[in-house]
Design goal:
Blueprint: H1 4-7, H2 15-26, H3 29-41, H4 45-73, H5 77-84, H6 91-123, H7 126-129, H8 132-143, H9 147-165, H10 168-195, H11 201-208, H12 217-230, H13 237-242, H14 251-279, H15 290-301, H16 305-339, H17 343-363, H18 378-415, H19 425-452
Helix pairs in contact: 2-10, 2-14, 2-16, 3-12, 3-14, 4-5, 4-12, 4-14, 4-18, 4-19, 5-6, 6-9, 6-16, 6-17, 6-18, 8-15, 9-10, 9-16, 9-17, 10-14, 10-16, 11-14, 12-19, 15-16, 16-17, 17-18, 18-19
Bound molecules: tryptophan.
Tryptophan binds next to helix 2, helix 3, helix 12 and helix 16.
Protein backbone atom coordinates (compact mmCIF):
# COMPACT_ATOMS: atom_id res chain seq x y z
CA UNK A 1 0.00 0.00 0.00
CA UNK A 2 2.88 2.33 0.70
CA UNK A 3 4.61 1.30 -2.51
CA UNK A 4 2.21 2.93 -4.91
CA UNK A 5 3.07 6.49 -4.07
CA UNK A 6 6.77 5.77 -4.62
CA UNK A 7 6.52 6.03 -8.36
CA UNK A 8 4.76 9.37 -8.24
CA UNK A 9 6.79 10.74 -5.36
CA UNK A 10 8.09 14.25 -5.88
CA UNK A 11 11.83 14.78 -5.92
CA UNK A 12 14.53 17.41 -6.22
CA UNK A 13 15.95 17.76 -9.71
CA UNK A 14 19.71 17.99 -9.03
CA UNK A 15 22.40 17.70 -6.38
CA UNK A 16 22.74 21.47 -6.34
CA UNK A 17 18.98 21.76 -5.87
CA UNK A 18 19.10 19.44 -2.87
CA UNK A 19 22.02 21.31 -1.36
CA UNK A 20 20.41 24.76 -1.64
CA UNK A 21 17.14 23.44 -0.24
CA UNK A 22 18.91 21.84 2.73
CA UNK A 23 21.17 24.83 3.28
CA UNK A 24 18.14 27.07 2.83
CA UNK A 25 16.39 25.26 5.63
CA UNK A 26 19.44 25.35 7.87
CA UNK A 27 20.35 28.97 7.24
CA UNK A 28 17.69 31.13 8.82
CA UNK A 29 16.86 33.26 11.81
CA UNK A 30 19.04 30.77 13.70
CA UNK A 31 22.10 32.18 11.96
CA UNK A 32 21.20 35.84 11.55
CA UNK A 33 19.39 36.47 14.80
CA UNK A 34 20.08 33.68 17.29
CA UNK A 35 23.76 32.91 16.64
CA UNK A 36 25.11 36.48 17.03
CA UNK A 37 23.23 37.12 20.27
CA UNK A 38 24.29 33.77 21.74
CA UNK A 39 27.91 34.51 20.83
CA UNK A 40 27.52 37.81 22.61
CA UNK A 41 25.86 36.30 25.68
CA UNK A 42 28.36 33.47 25.98
CA UNK A 43 31.63 35.30 25.70
CA UNK A 44 32.59 35.13 22.02
CA UNK A 45 35.29 32.91 20.53
CA UNK A 46 35.22 30.10 23.11
CA UNK A 47 31.48 29.61 22.47
CA UNK A 48 32.11 29.57 18.74
CA UNK A 49 34.78 26.87 19.07
CA UNK A 50 32.52 24.66 21.21
CA UNK A 51 29.71 25.23 18.72
CA UNK A 52 31.98 24.17 15.85
CA UNK A 53 32.95 21.00 17.72
CA UNK A 54 29.25 20.11 18.20
CA UNK A 55 28.49 20.71 14.54
CA UNK A 56 31.33 18.40 13.56
CA UNK A 57 30.84 15.64 16.15
CA UNK A 58 27.04 15.64 16.47
CA UNK A 59 25.62 17.81 13.70
CA UNK A 60 27.01 15.88 10.75
CA UNK A 61 26.23 12.40 12.17
CA UNK A 62 22.68 13.54 12.94
CA UNK A 63 22.14 15.08 9.52
CA UNK A 64 23.33 11.82 8.03
CA UNK A 65 21.08 9.70 10.27
CA UNK A 66 17.97 11.65 9.29
CA UNK A 67 19.03 11.50 5.66
CA UNK A 68 19.25 7.71 5.88
CA UNK A 69 15.77 7.44 7.37
CA UNK A 70 14.25 9.71 4.73
CA UNK A 71 15.95 8.34 1.67
CA UNK A 72 15.60 4.71 2.67
CA UNK A 73 11.89 4.98 3.41
CA UNK A 74 11.05 7.51 0.67
CA UNK A 75 8.38 8.74 3.04
CA UNK A 76 7.42 11.69 5.21
CA UNK A 77 8.62 11.97 8.79
CA UNK A 78 5.34 10.58 10.06
CA UNK A 79 5.41 7.48 7.83
CA UNK A 80 9.16 6.86 7.56
CA UNK A 81 9.59 5.12 10.92
CA UNK A 82 6.50 2.97 10.40
CA UNK A 83 7.83 1.80 7.06
CA UNK A 84 11.35 1.03 8.25
CA UNK A 85 10.24 -0.59 11.50
CA UNK A 86 6.65 -1.80 11.08
CA UNK A 87 6.81 -3.99 14.18
CA UNK A 88 7.60 -1.41 16.88
CA UNK A 89 6.22 1.81 18.25
CA UNK A 90 8.64 3.96 16.29
CA UNK A 91 5.84 5.74 14.41
CA UNK A 92 5.54 7.86 17.49
CA UNK A 93 8.89 9.50 16.70
CA UNK A 94 7.49 10.81 13.44
CA UNK A 95 4.45 12.22 15.18
CA UNK A 96 6.74 14.00 17.63
CA UNK A 97 8.59 15.62 14.72
CA UNK A 98 5.33 16.88 13.23
CA UNK A 99 4.25 18.36 16.57
CA UNK A 100 7.67 19.96 16.98
CA UNK A 101 7.46 21.60 13.55
CA UNK A 102 3.95 22.85 14.31
CA UNK A 103 5.24 24.65 17.40
CA UNK A 104 8.31 25.99 15.58
CA UNK A 105 6.37 27.34 12.62
CA UNK A 106 3.89 29.10 14.90
CA UNK A 107 6.49 31.35 16.52
CA UNK A 108 8.89 31.38 13.56
CA UNK A 109 6.17 32.97 11.47
CA UNK A 110 5.72 35.68 14.10
CA UNK A 111 9.46 36.47 14.09
CA UNK A 112 9.40 36.32 10.28
CA UNK A 113 6.59 38.87 10.49
CA UNK A 114 8.82 41.15 12.57
CA UNK A 115 11.32 40.83 9.72
CA UNK A 116 8.67 42.11 7.30
CA UNK A 117 7.89 45.09 9.52
CA UNK A 118 11.58 45.95 9.86
CA UNK A 119 12.14 45.59 6.15
CA UNK A 120 9.30 48.06 5.52
CA UNK A 121 10.72 50.40 8.16
CA UNK A 122 14.13 50.18 6.46
CA UNK A 123 12.62 51.00 3.07
CA UNK A 124 10.96 54.08 4.62
CA UNK A 125 14.36 55.07 6.12
CA UNK A 126 12.79 55.03 9.58
CA UNK A 127 16.08 54.12 11.25
CA UNK A 128 18.07 57.00 9.82
CA UNK A 129 15.42 59.55 10.73
CA UNK A 130 14.52 58.39 14.24
CA UNK A 131 15.87 59.70 17.56
CA UNK A 132 17.75 57.42 19.95
CA UNK A 133 14.75 57.14 22.27
CA UNK A 134 12.43 56.16 19.44
CA UNK A 135 14.93 53.55 18.26
CA UNK A 136 15.39 51.98 21.66
CA UNK A 137 11.66 51.59 22.29
CA UNK A 138 10.77 50.79 18.68
CA UNK A 139 11.02 47.04 19.00
CA UNK A 140 9.13 46.60 22.27
CA UNK A 141 6.40 49.00 21.16
CA UNK A 142 5.92 47.12 17.93
CA UNK A 143 6.18 43.54 19.16
CA UNK A 144 3.76 44.12 22.03
CA UNK A 145 1.09 45.84 19.97
CA UNK A 146 -2.00 43.97 18.78
CA UNK A 147 -2.65 44.39 15.10
CA UNK A 148 0.59 45.20 13.29
CA UNK A 149 2.43 42.00 14.33
CA UNK A 150 -0.66 39.92 13.52
CA UNK A 151 -0.87 41.36 10.05
CA UNK A 152 2.86 40.76 9.49
CA UNK A 153 2.59 37.18 10.76
CA UNK A 154 -0.30 36.60 8.35
CA UNK A 155 1.66 37.96 5.39
CA UNK A 156 4.71 35.87 6.25
CA UNK A 157 2.64 32.70 6.56
CA UNK A 158 0.77 33.39 3.32
CA UNK A 159 4.08 33.71 1.44
CA UNK A 160 5.42 30.54 3.07
CA UNK A 161 2.27 28.60 2.16
CA UNK A 162 2.35 30.07 -1.36
CA UNK A 163 5.81 28.61 -1.97
CA UNK A 164 5.04 25.25 -0.36
CA UNK A 165 1.82 24.82 -2.35
CA UNK A 166 3.83 24.94 -5.58
CA UNK A 167 5.53 21.70 -4.59
CA UNK A 168 9.07 20.48 -4.06
CA UNK A 169 10.71 21.23 -7.40
CA UNK A 170 8.82 24.29 -8.56
CA UNK A 171 8.32 25.82 -5.13
CA UNK A 172 10.99 24.92 -2.64
CA UNK A 173 13.89 24.11 -4.96
CA UNK A 174 13.49 27.00 -7.42
CA UNK A 175 12.99 29.54 -4.67
CA UNK A 176 16.07 28.38 -2.76
CA UNK A 177 18.21 28.17 -5.90
CA UNK A 178 17.77 31.87 -6.57
CA UNK A 179 17.59 33.16 -3.02
CA UNK A 180 20.51 31.37 -1.36
CA UNK A 181 23.18 32.90 -3.63
CA UNK A 182 21.49 36.33 -3.25
CA UNK A 183 21.58 35.90 0.51
CA UNK A 184 25.25 34.96 0.41
CA UNK A 185 26.20 38.03 -1.63
CA UNK A 186 24.23 40.45 0.56
CA UNK A 187 25.53 39.04 3.84
CA UNK A 188 29.15 38.95 2.63
CA UNK A 189 28.84 42.56 1.49
CA UNK A 190 27.49 43.66 4.86
CA UNK A 191 30.20 41.67 6.67
CA UNK A 192 32.94 43.42 4.66
CA UNK A 193 31.40 46.82 5.44
CA UNK A 194 31.23 45.97 9.11
CA UNK A 195 34.76 44.53 9.26
CA UNK A 196 36.22 47.70 7.76
CA UNK A 197 34.57 50.05 10.27
CA UNK A 198 37.02 51.99 12.43
CA UNK A 199 37.08 50.11 15.75
CA UNK A 200 35.58 46.98 14.18
CA UNK A 201 38.77 45.03 14.91
CA UNK A 202 37.70 44.54 18.52
CA UNK A 203 34.68 42.61 17.26
CA UNK A 204 36.88 40.33 15.18
CA UNK A 205 39.12 39.66 18.16
CA UNK A 206 36.04 38.94 20.28
CA UNK A 207 34.87 36.35 17.76
CA UNK A 208 38.15 34.61 17.10
CA UNK A 209 40.36 34.94 20.20
CA UNK A 210 38.99 32.58 22.84
CA UNK A 211 38.78 33.50 26.50
CA UNK A 212 38.24 30.12 28.21
CA UNK A 213 37.67 31.65 31.62
CA UNK A 214 34.10 32.54 30.63
CA UNK A 215 33.12 28.95 29.75
CA UNK A 216 30.63 27.15 32.03
CA UNK A 217 28.18 24.25 31.70
CA UNK A 218 25.66 26.74 30.31
CA UNK A 219 27.98 27.52 27.44
CA UNK A 220 27.88 23.88 26.33
CA UNK A 221 24.11 23.78 26.64
CA UNK A 222 23.65 26.91 24.60
CA UNK A 223 26.08 25.67 21.96
CA UNK A 224 24.36 22.28 21.57
CA UNK A 225 20.90 23.83 21.42
CA UNK A 226 22.11 26.25 18.80
CA UNK A 227 23.69 23.48 16.72
CA UNK A 228 20.35 21.61 16.74
CA UNK A 229 18.29 24.66 15.95
CA UNK A 230 20.58 25.99 13.27
CA UNK A 231 20.93 22.67 11.43
CA UNK A 232 17.16 22.02 11.76
CA UNK A 233 17.86 18.70 13.48
CA UNK A 234 15.62 16.32 15.41
CA UNK A 235 12.42 17.61 13.85
CA UNK A 236 12.00 15.62 10.67
CA UNK A 237 13.25 18.23 8.22
CA UNK A 238 16.17 16.19 6.86
CA UNK A 239 13.98 13.06 6.85
CA UNK A 240 11.40 14.85 4.72
CA UNK A 241 13.87 16.45 2.30
CA UNK A 242 15.88 13.21 2.27
CA UNK A 243 12.80 11.40 0.99
CA UNK A 244 12.88 13.60 -2.13
CA UNK A 245 16.46 12.55 -2.83
CA UNK A 246 17.26 9.87 -5.40
CA UNK A 247 19.22 6.74 -4.68
CA UNK A 248 22.39 7.80 -6.55
CA UNK A 249 23.00 11.02 -4.60
CA UNK A 250 25.94 11.07 -2.16
CA UNK A 251 24.34 11.72 1.18
CA UNK A 252 27.60 11.92 3.12
CA UNK A 253 28.95 14.80 1.07
CA UNK A 254 25.52 16.48 1.03
CA UNK A 255 25.44 16.33 4.84
CA UNK A 256 28.96 17.72 5.17
CA UNK A 257 28.25 20.49 2.67
CA UNK A 258 25.03 21.45 4.44
CA UNK A 259 26.84 21.72 7.76
CA UNK A 260 29.64 23.74 6.16
CA UNK A 261 27.23 26.14 4.45
CA UNK A 262 25.26 26.67 7.64
CA UNK A 263 28.42 27.30 9.67
CA UNK A 264 29.80 29.66 7.03
CA UNK A 265 26.60 31.69 7.15
CA UNK A 266 26.67 31.82 10.93
CA UNK A 267 30.26 33.11 10.90
CA UNK A 268 29.48 35.62 8.16
CA UNK A 269 26.48 36.86 10.16
CA UNK A 270 28.74 37.17 13.21
CA UNK A 271 31.25 39.16 11.16
CA UNK A 272 28.44 41.39 9.91
CA UNK A 273 27.14 42.13 13.39
CA UNK A 274 29.93 41.93 15.99
CA UNK A 275 32.42 44.44 14.52
CA UNK A 276 29.59 46.97 14.15
CA UNK A 277 28.45 46.34 17.73
CA UNK A 278 31.99 46.98 19.01
CA UNK A 279 32.63 49.93 16.70
CA UNK A 280 29.61 51.71 18.18
CA UNK A 281 30.36 50.72 21.76
CA UNK A 282 27.22 48.61 22.26
CA UNK A 283 27.24 45.66 24.65
CA UNK A 284 27.37 42.36 22.71
CA UNK A 285 25.44 40.61 25.50
CA UNK A 286 22.26 42.48 24.67
CA UNK A 287 20.28 39.22 24.33
CA UNK A 288 17.53 38.30 21.86
CA UNK A 289 16.87 41.93 21.02
CA UNK A 290 20.35 42.30 19.48
CA UNK A 291 19.25 42.23 15.85
CA UNK A 292 15.98 44.09 16.21
CA UNK A 293 17.05 46.67 18.79
CA UNK A 294 20.76 47.24 18.29
CA UNK A 295 21.14 46.95 14.57
CA UNK A 296 18.64 49.64 13.56
CA UNK A 297 20.50 51.91 15.94
CA UNK A 298 23.77 51.09 14.21
CA UNK A 299 22.19 51.44 10.76
CA UNK A 300 20.98 54.88 11.80
CA UNK A 301 24.55 56.00 12.48
CA UNK A 302 26.41 54.30 9.65
CA UNK A 303 27.25 56.15 6.44
CA UNK A 304 24.96 54.57 3.81
CA UNK A 305 23.24 52.89 6.77
CA UNK A 306 19.80 53.31 5.22
CA UNK A 307 20.72 51.17 2.23
CA UNK A 308 22.53 48.60 4.36
CA UNK A 309 19.45 48.28 6.59
CA UNK A 310 17.27 47.54 3.56
CA UNK A 311 19.72 44.87 2.36
CA UNK A 312 20.08 43.34 5.81
CA UNK A 313 16.38 42.96 6.53
CA UNK A 314 15.79 41.73 3.01
CA UNK A 315 18.43 39.05 3.64
CA UNK A 316 16.87 38.22 7.00
CA UNK A 317 13.49 37.72 5.33
CA UNK A 318 14.91 35.49 2.61
CA UNK A 319 16.74 33.38 5.16
CA UNK A 320 13.62 33.09 7.29
CA UNK A 321 11.48 32.09 4.30
CA UNK A 322 13.77 29.33 3.01
CA UNK A 323 13.61 27.90 6.55
CA UNK A 324 9.90 28.36 7.21
CA UNK A 325 9.03 26.54 3.98
CA UNK A 326 11.06 23.56 5.22
CA UNK A 327 9.28 23.50 8.56
CA UNK A 328 5.92 23.65 6.80
CA UNK A 329 6.91 20.94 4.33
CA UNK A 330 7.51 18.48 7.19
CA UNK A 331 3.90 18.94 8.29
CA UNK A 332 2.47 19.02 4.77
CA UNK A 333 4.27 15.88 3.58
CA UNK A 334 3.15 13.97 6.65
CA UNK A 335 -0.45 15.20 6.41
CA UNK A 336 -0.62 14.38 2.68
CA UNK A 337 0.53 10.81 3.25
CA UNK A 338 -1.32 10.15 6.46
CA UNK A 339 -4.70 11.41 5.32
CA UNK A 340 -4.21 10.95 1.55
CA UNK A 341 -4.74 14.65 0.94
CA UNK A 342 -3.92 16.74 -2.10
CA UNK A 343 -1.10 19.25 -1.55
CA UNK A 344 -3.49 22.21 -1.81
CA UNK A 345 -5.89 20.81 0.75
CA UNK A 346 -3.09 19.96 3.16
CA UNK A 347 -1.53 23.41 2.84
CA UNK A 348 -4.89 25.11 3.42
CA UNK A 349 -5.64 23.07 6.54
CA UNK A 350 -2.15 23.47 8.00
CA UNK A 351 -2.17 27.19 7.18
CA UNK A 352 -5.33 27.72 9.22
CA UNK A 353 -4.02 25.77 12.21
CA UNK A 354 -0.62 27.47 12.28
CA UNK A 355 -2.16 30.87 11.69
CA UNK A 356 -4.28 30.53 14.81
CA UNK A 357 -1.38 29.25 16.94
CA UNK A 358 0.86 32.02 15.57
CA UNK A 359 -1.75 34.63 16.51
CA UNK A 360 -1.70 33.28 20.06
CA UNK A 361 2.12 33.52 20.11
CA UNK A 362 2.05 37.08 18.88
CA UNK A 363 -0.73 38.22 21.24
CA UNK A 364 1.04 36.55 24.16
CA UNK A 365 3.76 39.21 23.91
CA UNK A 366 1.26 42.04 24.13
CA UNK A 367 -2.42 42.16 25.07
CA UNK A 368 -2.41 38.57 26.38
CA UNK A 369 0.87 38.82 28.28
CA UNK A 370 -0.82 38.17 31.61
CA UNK A 371 -1.86 34.73 30.40
CA UNK A 372 0.90 32.26 31.35
CA UNK A 373 1.27 28.50 30.96
CA UNK A 374 3.91 26.95 33.22
CA UNK A 375 5.11 30.47 33.94
CA UNK A 376 5.79 31.20 30.28
CA UNK A 377 4.02 33.16 27.57
CA UNK A 378 2.72 31.04 24.67
CA UNK A 379 5.56 32.39 22.52
CA UNK A 380 8.26 31.39 25.01
CA UNK A 381 6.57 28.08 25.73
CA UNK A 382 6.52 27.07 22.06
CA UNK A 383 10.14 28.15 21.67
CA UNK A 384 11.20 26.28 24.79
CA UNK A 385 9.23 23.11 24.07
CA UNK A 386 10.50 22.81 20.52
CA UNK A 387 14.16 23.83 20.77
CA UNK A 388 14.90 22.61 24.30
CA UNK A 389 12.71 19.53 24.58
CA UNK A 390 11.26 18.04 21.40
CA UNK A 391 14.23 18.57 19.08
CA UNK A 392 16.60 16.98 21.58
CA UNK A 393 14.30 14.01 22.18
CA UNK A 394 13.77 13.70 18.42
CA UNK A 395 17.52 13.76 17.80
CA UNK A 396 18.11 11.17 20.47
CA UNK A 397 15.47 8.83 19.04
CA UNK A 398 16.84 9.27 15.53
CA UNK A 399 20.40 8.26 16.42
CA UNK A 400 19.16 5.32 18.49
CA UNK A 401 16.92 4.22 15.64
CA UNK A 402 19.65 4.38 13.01
CA UNK A 403 22.45 2.81 15.02
CA UNK A 404 20.57 0.18 17.05
CA UNK A 405 17.48 -0.59 14.99
CA UNK A 406 18.73 -0.19 11.40
CA UNK A 407 22.32 -1.07 12.27
CA UNK A 408 25.71 -0.73 10.68
CA UNK A 409 24.85 -2.66 7.54
CA UNK A 410 22.14 -0.16 6.64
CA UNK A 411 24.54 2.71 7.36
CA UNK A 412 27.12 1.16 5.06
CA UNK A 413 24.53 0.57 2.33
CA UNK A 414 23.24 4.12 2.46
CA UNK A 415 26.65 5.79 2.63
CA UNK A 416 28.03 3.81 -0.28
CA UNK A 417 24.77 3.75 -2.26
CA UNK A 418 24.64 -0.03 -2.11
CA UNK A 419 28.37 -0.52 -2.56
CA UNK A 420 28.84 1.70 -5.63
CA UNK A 421 30.77 4.45 -3.83
CA UNK A 422 34.19 3.89 -2.30
CA UNK A 423 34.24 5.15 1.27
CA UNK A 424 37.11 3.93 3.51
CA UNK A 425 36.04 1.62 6.33
CA UNK A 426 37.51 3.84 9.01
CA UNK A 427 35.24 6.69 7.92
CA UNK A 428 32.15 4.51 8.24
CA UNK A 429 33.39 3.09 11.56
CA UNK A 430 33.97 6.55 12.97
CA UNK A 431 30.56 7.79 11.86
CA UNK A 432 28.89 4.71 13.31
CA UNK A 433 30.68 5.23 16.61
CA UNK A 434 29.59 8.87 16.71
CA UNK A 435 25.97 7.96 15.94
CA UNK A 436 25.79 4.99 18.27
CA UNK A 437 27.66 6.24 21.34
CA UNK A 438 28.86 9.83 21.25
CA UNK A 439 25.65 11.51 20.06
CA UNK A 440 23.19 9.79 22.44
CA UNK A 441 25.52 10.25 25.41
CA UNK A 442 26.11 13.92 24.72
CA UNK A 443 22.41 14.66 24.13
CA UNK A 444 21.40 12.79 27.30
CA UNK A 445 23.97 14.54 29.48
CA UNK A 446 22.91 17.94 28.21
CA UNK A 447 19.20 17.15 28.62
CA UNK A 448 19.63 15.90 32.17
CA UNK A 449 21.82 18.85 33.06
CA UNK A 450 19.17 21.18 31.66
CA UNK A 451 16.24 19.73 33.55
CA UNK A 452 18.16 19.46 36.78
CA UNK A 453 19.36 23.04 36.71
N1 LIG B 1 17.47 26.06 11.02
C1 LIG B 1 16.58 27.15 10.85
C2 LIG B 1 17.25 28.41 11.32
O1 LIG B 1 18.41 28.41 11.57
C3 LIG B 1 15.29 26.97 11.56
C4 LIG B 1 14.63 25.71 11.17
C5 LIG B 1 14.28 25.30 9.94
C6 LIG B 1 14.28 24.71 12.00
N2 LIG B 1 13.72 24.06 10.00
C7 LIG B 1 13.72 23.69 11.25
C8 LIG B 1 14.44 24.63 13.33
C9 LIG B 1 13.30 22.55 11.83
C10 LIG B 1 14.02 23.48 13.91
C11 LIG B 1 13.46 22.46 13.18
O2 LIG B 1 16.63 29.42 11.43
Amino acid sequence: MKRENKTSRESFSSSFGILVALAGSAVGLGNLWRFPYLVGENGGAAFILIYLAFVLLLGIPLLLSEFIIGRRSQASARQAFKILAPDGHWGFTGLLAVICCTLILSFYSVVGGWGIEYFVKAVKFDFTNASDETLSSMFSTFSSSTWAPLICHTVFLVVTAGIVVSGVKKGIESFSKIMMPVLFVIMTGIAIRSLTLPGGGAGVEYMFKPDWSEVTGKTFLAALGQAFFSLSLGSGMVITYGSYVKKHERILSLSVQTALADTAFALIAGCAIMPAVFAFGISPSEGPGLVFTTLPFIFGKLPMGGIIAILFFFALLLAALTSSISVMEVIIASAMEEFKLKRKTAVTAVFIGIWILGCLCSLSLGPMSGWKIMGKSVFDLFDYLSANVLMLIGGLLVVIFVSWKLGKKALHEELTNGGTLKIPDWVIDTIFFLIRFVAPTAILIIMIFQYVS
